[in-house]
Amino acid sequence: MTRSRRLRMATLSVAAISLILAGCSSGEDPKAGKTELTLYNDKGAWSKYFEEMGSLSKQKIGLGMKPVGYTDSAGYQAFIKASFRTDVKPDLFSWQTGGMLAEIVKQKQVAETTEVWQEAIKNGDLSQDVASYYTVDGKQYCVPMNVAYWGMFYNKKIFDQHELKPPTTWDELIKIADTLKQNKLPAFYHTSVLFSFVWFEQLLAGTDPDLYDKLSTGQAKYTDPGVVAVMERWKSMIDAGYFVNPGDKTDPGDVLKNGKAAMVSFGTFFNTSMTQRAMKPGEDYGFFVIPNVNASLPKTSMIFESGPLCSQTKAADPAANMKYLKWWVGEEAQQKWSIARGDVSANPKVKGDDEALNKITEDAGKGEYRLVNRYFEATPPPILTAALDGFGAFLVKPDSYPKVLEDIQRAADEYWSTHR
Amino acid sequence: MTVATTKPGGVSRRRAPLLGTFRHGYVAPAALLVAGLLYAPFLWTVYLSFTSYDGLGDPEWTGLANFGRLLEDPALLTSLRNTLIWVAGTMLLPVGLGLLIAVLSYDLKHGVWYRLPFMLPYALSGAGLALVWSPILSHGGMVNLLFGVDTAFLQEEPTNTLALLLVWTWQQLGVNTLLFVVGLQSIPKAPIEAARIDGASGWQLFRRVIWPLMAPLTAVVVGLALVAGLKTFDIVWVMTQGGPGRNSETLAVTMYRDTFVASEYGYGSAVAVMLTVVTGLASYLYLRRQVGGTS
Which of B263, B264, B267 best tests the A interface by mutation, with the highest count of A CBs <10 A? Predict the structure, then answer.
């Protein structure tokens, strides 16, 4: 009886523990070569495009890809960080350049891709300029999943109606805003949620791009006169009535389509929002490079962002991951990726359907602009969080800018005191 | 135990050893799940609250530094103030109005039809509710257009917290009404009749007879509302993300934001520990007063 009881107890315990452990196992043989990779990303809305890429890669290199898309960036990042400590690892994953990439490189969690970059640069599939965003201590990590140049999308019908033309100087841009204001139409879109940094980065990069870079690396302060002057300019533009309500929750795509604002500053990926709304480039909307505030700068500053596609250091099949990344940056894959999303590609050989965007890519490739890393990636996360909150508060109460800058600087002081 | 000895049936005698044999086995899966998914993360959070940790590498022990920072953080003070508004507002609106509607409708012939419109919004999830109300209350949204006003309901503080509270009331009113109606229908009729014969009516009857008889149910409804107010998260996160400028954050939103958005796992954990202590303490004090007092 006693033995029987023990046996039953043991069986139950084993069953209970197995049940729990089964939930934690990956169910894959890690030694077997992979024929399909998982690609975790925080671009849930792009799942359709990733799936198209998975089908193409299966056909071309015999290696399929299945996307797992998150829509909440914070939840996604927490998951990826947790995966570094467990055996359940994504094969490929999207991340951010700047401080976020440097962090995971420092922790030795992301695989080096120097070889992929060298070969791609040699073939003309990637440019040396873009490499700098992927370089940490002289080595490259990850490859570009997407790139975007930031400029101004404008409602062409409104421009035509008021006989306006895309500006080539800052004064012309302000003159357009004045004309629209006289016709009781807000010129620009802005928002107090998440993208509250857009006008700050644009005005600072267009006034003093060196100061912008110094601010990103802790060599300048948010309370410096140059930064204060930018906030004052931003405030004067809000006071002048150039902007829509920052608390308006209308999607910026609809804002532009419905003419709620005549211009929306966004990355080239916004093109997808336009085409999804059946708007035609050159007919319903247009795109121009935002002129510098400071006309004496040698090159027009252009905000640039690039989202990396990475492989973990301890991936299940590192060779398969590298094979995939090599294919990803090539012309064949990038042509498909660019056309599917209606966006530009990191590969200079790729031409999309939109002539205006093709020209931007071409000019940027020739070095005609001073590319400035987007504020979201350029700023370390704790400072960024404080800044997004601060700019959001500023948009509601523009008079509060001195306090906002002090609050951001406090977060910056704290961060840089331990991250020099 | 008493039952088993006073009922000498074969059934009890046969079951006792069987239950004895299996009792640990039966409990084991649930105990393992609770320990693994609840207690272990809780202890880990408490440990993290004493560290500096960005989610990568190893946590660095900093002692009470995070708790010291909590006392000086102006955003936390705003968050505390908003949480208190939520707790007070939850008591006043969904609970208070719920009671009023229940009292006015519970003995009406077709009372259920009066209560039904208040019940329907309860079918919506918290996040769904927030998504629906967001364009209604946003600056330039439907309320602004409908009434020709230019009020930024979700921008200015504390208007935004009050606006969110009204949305929350819209959803929660029905379920509180239902609970109070059940309470009103289940209280014994004899004391009420006796009070009526003695001449009690209206407010006096409610205050002196009905309200005391409903005390056990009220304790549950208010207790649930207290905890719900303290842990408010979804509606705030979806509608304002705690902003603009952190002015509509609650403690639960601050905890999430500091941990996952700012990647300050240590500080966020300290907020979580503080929220746990506040919720635990408030619930304990309230229940001790209500339940302890009646037992």
Answer: B263
Q: How many helices (H) and strands (E) does chain A have?
A: 19, 10
Query: CA-nearest residue of chain A to B74?
Result: A407
Confirm if A212 and A205 have CB atoms less than 8 A apart.
yes
Tokens linked to B71: 């006392």
> Cβ–Cβ of B260/A77 closer than 8 Å?
yes
Q: Are strands A92-94 and A369-373 parallel, antiparallel or unpaired?
A: unpaired
User: Cβ distance A259 to A155 under 8 Å?
Assistant: yes
Strands B60-61 and B51-52: antiparallel
Closest CB to A247 among B24, B139, B256: B139
Residue of chain B whose Cα is closest to the Cα of A102: B56
Torsion, CA B198, CA B199, CA B204, CA B208, rounded to 10: 10
| Distance in angstroms (rounded) separating the CA atoms of residues A324 and A37 | 9
B24 CB neighbours in chain A (<8 A) are 9
Residues of chain B contacting A104 with CB distance shorter than 8 Å = 56
Task: Please judge whether B32 and A389 are an interchain contact, meaning their C-beta atoms are less than 8 angstroms apart.
Answer: no
Indicate yes or no: CB of B243 within 8 angstroms of CB of A392: yes
Domain with CATH 3.40.190.10 in chain A: 36-146+305-367, 149-303+374-416
pTM > 0.90: yes or no: no
Is domain A149-303+374-416 in CATH 3.20.20.80, yes or no?
Answer: no
Distance, in Å, from the CA atom of B10 to the CA atom of A14, rounded to the nearest integer, reads: 32
Tokens standing for residue A335: 């042509």
Question: Pick from B29, B57, B245: which is nearest to A392 by CB?
Answer: B245
Using a CB–CB cut-off of 8 Å, the residues of B that contact A are 21-22, 24-26, 28-29, 32-33, 36, 54-57, 75, 134-135, 138-141, 152, 154-156, 240-241, 243-247, 256-257, 259-264
Closest CB to A104 among B28, B33, B56 = B56
Whether the bond into A308 is cis, omega within 30 of 0: no
For chain B, give every residue range classified as CATH 1.10.3720.10: 68-294
Q: Rounded to a whole number, what is the distance in Å from the CA of A340 to chain B's nearest CA?
A: 29
- φ, ψ of residue A199 to 5 degrees: the values are -75, -30
Token readout for A4 is 């029987």
Name the token pair of B247. Answer: 């002015």
Cβ contacts below 8 Å, chain A against chain B, sum to 110
Q: Do B134 and A249 touch (CB under 8 A)?
A: yes
Task: Look up the CATH architecture of domain B68-294.
Answer: Orthogonal Bundle (1.10)
Bond preceding residue B244 cis, omega within 30 of 0 = yes
Q: Does residue A247 contact residue B138 with C-beta atoms inside 8 Å? A: yes
Q: Please list the pLDDT of chain A residue by residue as tens digits (420 residues).
A: 456 566 555 655 555 555 445 444 444 444 558 899 999 999 988 899 999 999 999 999 999 999 999 988 888 998 999 899 888 789 999 999 988 899 899 999 999 999 999 999 999 999 888 898 999 999 999 999 999 999 999 999 999 999 999 999 999 999 999 999 999 999 999 988 889 999 999 999 999 999 999 999 999 999 999 999 999 999 999 999 999 988 888 889 999 999 999 999 999 989 888 888 999 988 999 999 999 999 999 999 999 999 999 999 988 899 999 999 999 999 999 999 998 888 889 998 898 878 888 888 888 877 889 999 999 999 988 899 889 989 998 998 999 999 999 999 999 998 898 876
Tell me which fold the domain A36-146+305-367 belongs to: D-Maltodextrin-Binding Protein; domain 2 (3.40.190)
Rounded to the nearest 5°, which phi and psi values hold at B208? Answer: -90, -25
**Among the partner residues B24, B141, B156, nearest to A396 by beta-carbon distance:** B156
Residue A130 CA neighbour count, 13 Å, CB half: 30
**CA-based nearest distance B111→chain A, Å:** 39
